[in-house]
Amino acid sequence: MGQALEGVRILDFTHVQSGPTCTQLLAWFGADVIKVEKPGVGDITRTQLRDIPNVDSLYFTMLNHNKRSITLDTKNKAGKAVLEELVRSCDVLVENFAPGVLDRMGFSWARIQELNPRMIVASIKGFGPGPYQDCKVYENVAQCAGGAASTTGFDDGPPLVTGAQIGDSGTGLHLALGIVTALYQRTHSGRGQRVDAAMQDGVLNLCRVKLRDQQRIERGPLKEYPQYPNGKFGDAVPRAGNASGGGQPGWILKCKGWENDPNAYIYFITQAPVWGAICKVIGKEEWITDPDYATPEARLPRLRSIFDTIEKWTETKDKFEAMDILNKFDIPCGPILSMREIANEPSLRVTGTVVEVDHPERGPYLSVGNPIKLSDSPTVVERSPLLGEHTQEVLRDVLGFDQSRIDEIAGSGALGAPVAMAAE
Ligand SMILES: CC(C)(COP(=O)(O)OP(=O)(O)OC[C@H]1O[C@@H](n2cnc3c(N)ncnc32)[C@H](O)[C@@H]1OP(=O)(O)O)[C@@H](O)C(=O)NCCC(=O)NCCS
User: Fold this and answer.
1) Residue among 13, 43, 101, 165 to mutate when testing ligand 1 (max atoms within 8 A of CB)
2) Distances from the Cα of 110 to the Cαs of 116, 119, 188, 201, in angstroms?
3) Is-cis flag, bond preceding 371, omega within 30?
């Protein structure tokens, strides 16, 4: 069976997390992703947060599956010439350098179009055009500037960042969609184009409901927020604790064992159509007809005490027992799963969402596989490449260089130290 993006060649100039997430997805859909790395160094994440000495970190291996790696000094004349050839031979260039780096390297949009008018150039930057356009940005900066931090956390605490990498991996996802869209448009326009995704914009897109609430707050209190009815609302969307982002009130409730287990909790949603079932399960049948509790509007000012009462029930069950009981009545709820529980969850292994991958230097490790499943384009997760593992192969097979030309380029130092070459 073929793969969706078979025949698409990506010049992967990405590093750290945001860009590599994007190109990893494209590789999982079948694109040939050639990662260009600085000789001797490579993507900085190869050495960051290492758990085994001198072995590519999990940070790197988990973001660079199914890619080929070549080392190329793009500041060396011969290296630049190789890069020009790669631009001519690839369909998409993806990069997430700091603003201005690609231009300084000599690969402006105008130059790339000269070399290959069909090329799509996809970039992630921290900010779009505006006051911060020249800033370098990492995950948490984007979370703060995109509205996530000001709306996350509890009302009486500071802004909080989330563990979900919405700035990096989130923007990588946005960029991947932009790239396949541009590839599709190219099938009838014949031309490449630029695809830009700013991390601030990506985070804000994921915080869409908070901009919704910013406009609602100007017309009255946000009645589903925990601040209602006793707290004060200011002029900006407040932090909503664990309140549900949608129209269905929800909260995180303790389950049996919470005193010793930091994850013995369940997310409980009081969806209106199952209110009667909730009342029966927790032994408060009188709430079904009591006018103070019978309608969603009547419940809004009492949500705090309602959840306190429901919690008295959830505290008597462990989170999985509570799930089993509540799901029988279609009551939307979810256990708070630790990373340990997720790593060991058999159903995630079956679907390939959690995969075990073997690596020649580190041995087997767990990774998150492709979360997007295509019925005609299955993903097989392959280990990340060693630094420069495919340099010779790409110069030979993709660019068609003969050995004497490769030796000449290597002699210039453009491919890295001779030691690295000998190791291939
Ligand atoms: C992530 C970020 C802050 C890292 O900054 P950094 O480590 O200082 O790296 P930069 O992107 O500034 O630049 C890399 C330098 O290496 C050079 N370089 C990269 N690959 C090279 C290669 N193969 N050969 C030679 N030089 C290379 C670049 O030319 C650049 O040099 P210059 O500044 O002299 O022009 C920055 O890249 C950034 O803001 N990116 C956009 C936003 C983003 O994606 N952030 C999230 C990352 S998860």
Assistant:
1) 101
2) 10, 11, 22, 25
3) no
> Of all protein residues, whose CA lies closest to atom 30 belonging to ligand 1?
101
Confidence band for 420, pLDDT divided at 50, 70 and 90: very low
C-alpha 327, offset from chain centre:
29
> Which SS3 state, helix, strand or coil, does residue 333 take?
strand
The pair of structure tokens assigned to 12 is 């992967």
| Distance (Å, whole) CA 407 – CA 401 | 10
Q: Which atom of ligand 1 is nearest the CA belonging to 19? A: 44
Contact at 8 Å (CB) between 309 and 301?
Answer: no
Q: How confident is the model at residue 279 (pLDDT cuts 50, 70, 90)?
A: very high
Tell which atom from ligand 1 comes closest to the C-alpha of 79.
24
Q: Where are the alpha helices (DSSP H) in 237-385?
A: 275-281, 296-299, 303-314, 319-328, 339-343, 346-351
Rounded CA-CA distance 207/190 in Å is 35
> What does the alpha-carbon distance between residue 72 and residue 76 come to, in Å, rounded to a whole number?
8
Matching residue, tokens 């060649």? 9
Q: How far is the CA of 279 from the centre of ligand 1 (A)?
A: 57
Domain ranges within the chain, ordered by starting residue: 9-205+343-412, 250-331
pLDDT tens digit string along 163-188?
999 999 999 999 999 999 999 999 99
Q: What dotted CATH number matches 250-331?
A: 3.30.1540.10
CA angle 81, 119, 18 (to 5 degrees): 90
φ/ψ of residue 314, rounded to 5: -65, -30
120 by DSSP, 3-state: which? strand
Q: Which CATH architecture has domain 9-205+343-412?
A: 3-Layer(aba) Sandwich (3.40)
Active site residues: 168
Ligand 1 centroid from CA 20, angstroms: 13
Helices (H), 135-195: 139-145, 169-189
Q: Whose CA is nearest to atom 5 of ligand 1?
A: 98
Q: Say what the pTM is.
A: 0.95
How do 194-198 and 120-125 pair as beta strands?
parallel
Distance 404 CA to ligand 1 centre (A): 32
- Output phi, psi for 272, to 5 deg: -55, -45
